[in-house]
Design brief:
This protein has 254 residues and is mainly α. The chain is built from seven helices and two strands, in the order H-H-H-E-E-H-H-H-H.
């Protein structure tokens, strides 16, 4: 075998750019960017996927020199980060709603280290985040992502990704939807929490011996947990709709 025909400048540069495309996905995309996955494993997976998809790699469309290589590498990293940000905005609809639920239930101080992000997170928010991660696995998000990358190779040349006005507009709109839909998810618990506060205030006026700390807070937490169980399935359906909408929009990049 003549290795000189394999390790040409074009093939080597194309392989490196394809590795950058996969590597940036393992940094930003949900599931792939999970903090419990060691960086060595992420790098090895990105290298393995680069080898697998190397045969479908399109030819380079730029002249190989130092400046073009730097621009192409930054373009591939930007491509993965933009895809990751769009999917993370859809995913964090659940975590934002969970943070508001946590505040309404009075569990803001009950926190632990989240295995996904590696930061301290309230218990309720961590629970819903893990449930959302399970939903993403059930939706085969990791398969969607690999199929998307395979399609991107035939439509977006290596080093040819650029930010467009429509892309920036969508990211701004997705950021606004994060707050609106997150509040929609948390609204039932917030509304019942406010209603419980009004009822407890009326009881304390009519019965001064009513101890809010001993009786009121446990009842409020119990009601919140009951509502949380009732809206859990609908919250996951909202997450599913957001992820599908994000992927539908990503197809417009082609």
């Amino acid at each position: 075998m003549n290795y000189a025909t394999i390790f040409t400048d074009t093939n080597v540069v194309g392989f490196l750019l394809l590795f950058f495309r996969f590597g940036s996905l393992f940094i930003a995309v949900p599931i792939f960017s999970h903090q419990s996955i060691p960086m060595v494993i992420k790098s090895a997976m990105a290298f393995l996927l680069t080898i697998v998809f190397y045969s479908s790699m399109p030819p380079l469309v730029f002249e190989i020199n130092l400046i073009n290589l730097i621009i192409a590498a930054l373009s591939e990293i930007l491509f993965g980060l933009v895809i990751g940000v769009i999917l993370q905005l859809a995913f964090h609809v659940i975590t934002f709603g969970a943070s508001m639920i946590t505040f309404a239930m009075g569990f803001s101080m009950a926190s632990a280290i989240d295995p996904q992000s590696g930061v301290s997170m309230p218990i309720i928010e961590q629970f819903l985040s893990l449930m959302a991660l399970m939903v993403l696995f059930s939706l085969n998000l990791h398969h969607w992502m690999l199929l998307f990358i395979d399609s991107s190779l035939s439509h977006i040349p290596l080093g040819g990704f650029v930010m467009t006005k429509s892309l920036v507009t969508y990211m701004i709109q997705a950021s606004a939807n994060l707050f609106v839909i997150g509040f929609t998810i948390a609204f039932p618990i917030i509304a019942l929490s406010w209603l419980a506060d009004i009822i407890f205030g009326m009881l304390m006026k009519t019965m001064p011996q009513f101890n809010l700390l001993v009786i009121g807070f446990p009842i409020k937490i119990m009601i919140s947990f009951a509502v949380l169980i009732a809206i859990l399935a609908s919250s996951m359906l909202i997450l599913q709709g957001q992820m599908q909408e994000a992927f539908n929009w990503l197809e417009k990049l082609f």
